[in-house]
Amino acid sequence: MISFKVNNELKSVDVDGNTPLLWVIRDVLDLKGTKFGCGKAACGACTLHVDGEAVRSCSYPVKNAEGKEITTIEGLGGEAELHPVQLAWKEHIVPQCGYCQPGFMMATAAMLNKIPQPTDEDINNNIINVCRCGTYYRMRKAIHRAAEIGAENVNIKMEDNGKG
Amino acid sequence: MAKDKKKGLKRRKFLKYSGAGLALMLGGTWLARNPIRRNIFKSGEVTIGPYIGDTSPLLWLEISPKNDIFLHSSKVEMGQGTFTGLAQLVAEELEVALDKIKVVHAQTKSGNMDGFATGGSMSIPTLWKPLREMAAIMREMMRTKAAEKLGVKATSLNLNQGVFSANGKSMTFGEAVDGVSEWDIPDAPALKPRSEFKVIGKALPRIDLHDKVIGAPIFGMDASYPDMLYASVVRPQLVDAQMSNFDISEAEKMPGVVKVVAENDLVAVVAKSQTEADNARQKIKYDYTTNRDWNLSDVVETIKVGNGAKTVIQKEGKAVDDLDGELISMEFRSPIGAHAQMEPNGAVANFHDGQVDIKVSTQVPKFTRNAVAKALGISKSKVNIIPTYLGGGFGRRLHTPNAIQAARLSRAVGKPVKSFLDRQQEFQNDTFRPPSHHVMKAKISDSGEILGVEHHLAGGDTLFNYPILPSIANAAIRADIGSIRGGSIMYDGLPNYRAIYYHSDLPFATSFWRSLGLLANTFAIESFIDELALKTKQNPVELRLKNLTSEDPHKIRISNVIKSAAEKSGYTDEVRDGRAMGFAASIDAGTPCAQVVEVSIVDEEIKVHKVTAVMDCGIAVNPDQVRAQVEGCICMGISASLYEQMNLKNNKLFPIIYGPYQMALMRDAPKEIDVHLIEGADFAGPVGEPPLGPIGAAIGNAVRRLTGKRLTELPMALS
């Protein structure tokens, strides 16, 4: 048995420890938002977070996830509200076919945790997933917008704390 | 008035829009006459065909007593925004807001099947009128029922947001349809004029936006059935080769394996998980016999102007060889292109009780149904194709073997089976964009007048051997009408111009790749036109406009996008601050597009900073999604023009993975894409492919101004 948290829920799975985390997430835990693209960590469609870090789950053995906290696109936002990245994605109407988009959103959210206000250069260096529909132009705008929304949320929280 | 049972299968056919269309058009022996054949090629540049399929409103539209409005679409959603556009057409005539329409893929058992495919940028154009008529007919049928139920005259009823009202009484759509089992289908009423559109023409968010932002399980690869098993199929890694002597003994012993199926043309592992199936498949041993050795140089040698069957696709005036003047000639090439769509191909099949249900992302639900029925030896009525959202289409999902394999494997193990290609299999078993070779020729007079231009092109199959075309068509048209897309000379002011196509066979499958021949043909023609402008010391925009002189409405629309693109971009021939502009234009399926790129050389690589695009697709049903298609085509076109190419060595196609198959990433996409739409026609024209035309040539033309060097091969590289 391998145990870890997925989107804040404790899960235990009985699988070969070398099974890629992607297939455990998709086929055992039935969370289909994380996609298979290449199986070789070359496209980023399977990106999710392990302890807050962006990980390409198609090439991450599930045994390495023991005791860790995993977040998938399904758990990126809160119960009732979307994550700033998702809000920005909607505002800029980014997705076309949509298949690669969860991976891009997860990669973006992880980047914004480390670099809250990324430059274009930061985006070029950190967001290296593949989108065949070519939504990069809107995605770049959405990433900057997500950073803005993130900053607004931080300010609101600080104000709330001040009042309290 | 025709009687029609709502749930019955006997439905009135609206013959005006159905029928065999292309097949009928190609049927006659008159095709043997060359000028008429050339007219067909010409019409391919500018004509929108009919919708091929049933257009009964009761097949397409379902209104529930709970007031839900379902649009059962025979066209599939692969990112192009068609679901949103179709819903806007329906909402317009039903007088409801867009969010009231729920669009679902029509299952083939419903009878609503597209007789062609989702492709060719033809979904909105072919349904532009029929779908609005279906919605208008549905509206009037409901009005009649509401009037009966309310005891008022139908003509007295007002309709607002899905509610009929008169004399203080009101009734919703849901109440109007409740309990009705037979409908009188009237003739189509007059459609709303453009001036009264409220939903069409609005840049509303695409209807699948939320699902795609939360990661909803909407794709073929997300589909499942209870108790489902996973398959991994052995597929050839070599071209022009046969596999034999399969040894499955080791694979059978691998953990999780339920069955190893080994039939003549299907060897596969079925296991309890994808990983176990893939691991076991690696243990299957077999031998290869190749018919001959194939390397990329053999492909280049095969696809060459002068080789194979020759067809004149355009002929105005004299041949360039017969003109007096200075000969200018250049050669261009494009490589084998992979689709590289993000969702691999595959299907989830559930064979039970002599019938099969198949969930699959496909561009051809009807052909898939027919092919599965034939392969399994069961009647078509026993096969139900349940289309899902597509994780990219681009022409990669026009083929049916994956659904057949999943169905056969499900039958073999008696359980639902999911069977998908892995990425290596995708790259090695793709239906590639065929490589091309182009020879451009012109003669120029002493005074610098262009006397004539010729485009000679060679390519592989795209449409040939594709099931939508009757076999007679191959013999009748002779030229592959996909490869020649965009291959004609659009400058009809030239005194002499021709386009000639040479067809050869390749040892691997080639097919549709978004826009077919348009990207490569436009790269050759528009690069050459630019070279002629430089040679004759003319402004490239003025040279183009000067040679678009006829009063043909399409030529006027081409002129307009060219003028507008020059103006909006501030096009100049000068290099400023290390940046040069490149100009190119094309017309595809009646939609002209012009693009101006701004390019510099960064670290010895071509960098596209900005693209200005002007397109005239007629009425933009959803201007935001039309823009999205232009932006997407530009990024995909940059990718194909600067990075992508498949290689072939000792019968092995490679690369087999993203990265080595280099594609445009975020860092390569232009930071500025400025799209302008001209609505120069009173119909909704093609959108999804026409913007792929100019981008390659535009980049090459900018690089020529920056470096003095004419790049003639895709992908373009400076060294």
The ordered H/E elements of chain A are: EEHEEEHHHHH
Given the structure, what is the number of helices of chain A?
6
The backbone outline of chain A, from C-alpha atoms, is globular
Of all protein chain pairs, which has the greatest interface, and how many residues does each chain bring to it?
A-B, 55 and 64 residues
**How many domains would you count in the coordinates of chain A?**
2
Oligomer: heterodimer
What number is the mean pLDDT of chain A?
A: 95
* Count of the domains of chain B: 3
Q: Rg of chain A, please?
A: 16 Å
Category by helix and strand content of chain B: alpha+beta
CATH topology of the largest domain in chain B: Aldehyde Oxidoreductase, domain 4
Percent helix of chain B: 25-40%
Q: Give the amount of beta strand of chain B, in percent.
A: 15-25%
Strand content of chain A: 5-15%
- The assigned structural class of chain A equals alpha+beta
CATH architecture of the largest domain in chain B: 2-Layer Sandwich
Spatial gap, N to C terminus of chain A: 44 Å
